[in-house]
Every structure is written in C-alpha cells, then in structure tokens.
Amino acid sequence: MAEPNNTPYPPSTPVPASTPRSASPAPPIPNASPDATTSRAPHGSGPESTTPARPIVLHIGDPIKYNPQTYAEFSALFDVVRPSAEERERGELIRALKERRWGDFSAIFRPFWGTGGEMGRWDAELIDLLPDSVRIFASAGAGFDWADTQLLGEKGIIYCNSGLAAAEAVADFAVAMVISTFRHLPWCMSAALSPDPSAFQACHAQATGASHTLRGRVLGLVGFGNIGQQIAAKLGHAAFGMRVAYHDVVRRPAALEAALSASFHSTLASLLAASDCVVLCTPASPDGHPLITAETLRHVKPGARFVNVARGSLVDEDALADAVEGGLVSAAALDVHATEPRVHPRLAKLAGLEAERPGRVMLTCHNAGGTVETHVGFEELSMRNIMAVLGGGEAVTPVNMEFLRRV
C-alpha cells in the first residue's frame, strides 16, 4: 500500500480530498502541556461556558504528535478539552461526569491506543453518565472489546475505531507469524543464541523434519475485513501461493472473493476443519464470548497452525495450550494475550528451548499494529471521524450503526 496520505487507506477506499499531508514525526503542538490542556477557558463556570460557540470535544490520552495540520483544523472547529491524567482515572472520571465538569461535550477523542484507557472499560457505569449531547466516540485501535458499543449506539453515540489505519501493519506482522508457524522461527532463533552449541546443532538437524513451505496450504481467516483482506493478498496465490478461505458474519461480494481467490465458509467449524493455518483477525466476537475454545478446537484439522493478531480475549488460552501440548495444533503464534501484560505460563513454556518439542509457540508483545505509520493514521482517522459526524456528514469507520438509536 502506498502512503500518500496521513491515514493509510487501502487502495479500494476513497481518500478524502481534504486530508492534508504532514511530515512524520511532526513537532509537538505549540503550547500543548502534558496534561489538562484546553483550547479555551475551562468549562463549567461563567455564563459563556454554558453556551459554547463551538462543540466541545473531550480528548482523552496523549497530545497530538504526528498531524499538526489536521489538528489545527480540528481545534479551529471545536473546543478541545483534555482532562489531566488524574481526571482520567475511573473514580475521578465518574465524579467529573456526574458534576458535568466539562459541560455538554459532543465527542470523545482517543487518538493513541497506549493512553486514554486509564478509566478501564467503557461500560454502563460510565456510558450512562455521558451527556445526551455526545454524538461520537472516535478511538485509536482496531479492537473494541473494551467498550460496550451496543450501549453506546443505543444512547445515540457512534463508535468509530481506527482499524483501517493499522490494517497494513497488522497484516505484515501476521505474515511473519504465519511463516513462523510453518518454519518454527522461535526454535531457530533461540537455538542460535544458546550458549550450548548442541542446541544449534539439534535445531539444524531436527527443524527440517518439522518445517513446511506455505504454497498450496489452506489459509483460514476468521474475519475478512481490511486486515483479513490484506493478509489474503500478501499470502495468497499471487505471492506465497496459499489457498485462501474465510469465515465472517457477512459474506463479501463475489467480485472481492474472485479478486483474492477466497472461498467462504458459513460456519467457523467448517473453516477450522479445512485450514492448515488459522488466523484470527476479527475485531470482536459477535456475542462477546471467546471464539476459540475447547469446543471449537475440536473441529481443527489435526496438525493445523494457529495465529492471533486480533484480541487476546477471543481465545481460551488454556484450551489452546491443551491443543498444542496434545499435538492437535502443531504450532501457534500469538501477538495478543488475554491477561496482558502477562502471557499464559503454559504457552510461554512451550515457546522455550526447554520444551519437549521446541519452537511450537511464538509470543510477541501486542506489536502487530505498532508502527509510526499506524499511529499517524490513528490520529488522523480519529479526527476525521469527529469532523465528519459533527459537521453533519457520515462517519468514516463506524462499527455500531446497527445499534444506533434512530430519531
């Protein structure tokens, strides 16, 4: 994907003509203090604060870093209020919302995934306290299991993620993880660094018998949105020669399936049974429960591989460890984990040289979307979503429109 714009849109996505170009990284926003910043006088006191001339945007998390031009446009349209780190802690945030500390704000803006989540999950306790004026919650990141998007929608709030900005970076990382499951890269890398020369020799001698090329193998994608489609393009017939299959809640158009040589499976069980490597790349479970469990793993093709670049909460890691230890799953690669920053101890043991069969698990630190280009896109796309909705247009990347209250 080329990157002529701040937000790395896939080639099939129309790029807003108004999206400005900016250097990366950009200098800090002038006069932006680390905490408690606002583009005007504090709200909640004085007659002029009760009827603001511009919509108020509540900015949670770090200051803008990469897109000063867009931020200048953004802050000219809205009164941007950024609570302090202390005010973003759950208890203090609840108090602030109850006392209407920031007035009748119209949007919540979270441009960075690493910050802005200090208050924990956005559930009924927080959402019920939001003023009726809130129309949009625009956030960095692709996953949204940390926010009750149905409840937000029922309150009339559009939730927008930024998965579009992370799609290429996540897809690239997924390719590396898929290769790892076929070539046992953790074993090869750990053995090369071992002070014991026999570890090197053992890996050189034994890894060959456990390794395979990708060509002709079935790649099963759970989720076929922007990330899934890019993984298919990178690993499919035109590149590594894998045969692409997918399962999603909505079947994609025939033209897209043909372009990516992708076959649709109407059930997860059918996809698991057909796949040599399963990649979990869906942002959330339809019912909020794990997708990969002891029950669903019973459908896995014996010896298949498993990759998770989606959400750690979508996998029962005990069940996955059982499947790897028992040989049902021959190798796994996980970038996301159910109890981050802690990784599952049995899976960690399977990733080490001391394991009975080394190299069957690759573990990384939620790095798949972590590039400068992704964060440039997170900022840009979050601002563009808010500008579109508060300007009377349509959101660029909404995820909860089916729950939105109609008025």
Automatic annotation (TrEMBL):
A GO cellular component entry from the record: cytosol
D-isomer specific 2-hydroxyacid dehydrogenase catalytic domain mapped to chain residues: 122-400
Matching Pfam families: 2-Hacid_dh, 2-Hacid_dh_C
Molecular-function GO terms, alphabetical: glyoxylate reductase (NADPH) activity; hydroxypyruvate reductase [NAD(P)H] activity; NAD binding
Region (Disordered), start-end ranges: 1-54
The UniProt record lists the keyword Nucleotide-binding: no
Keywords from the UniProt entry: Oxidoreductase
Coiled-coil segments: none
Composition bias type Low complexity, residue spans: 15-24
InterPro entries referenced in this protein's UniProt entry, alphabetically: D-isomer_2-hydroxyacid_DH, D-isomer_2_OHA_DH_cat_dom, D-isomer_DH_CS, D-isomer_DH_NAD-bd, NAD(P)-bd_dom_sf
Domain D-isomer specific 2-hydroxyacid dehydrogenase NAD-binding: 204-349
Protein family per UniProt: Belongs to the D-isomer specific 2-hydroxyacid dehydrogenase family.
Protein name as it appears in the record: D-mandelate dehydrogenase
Record organism: Schizothecium vesticola
Lineage of source species: Eukaryota, Fungi, Dikarya, Ascomycota, Pezizomycotina
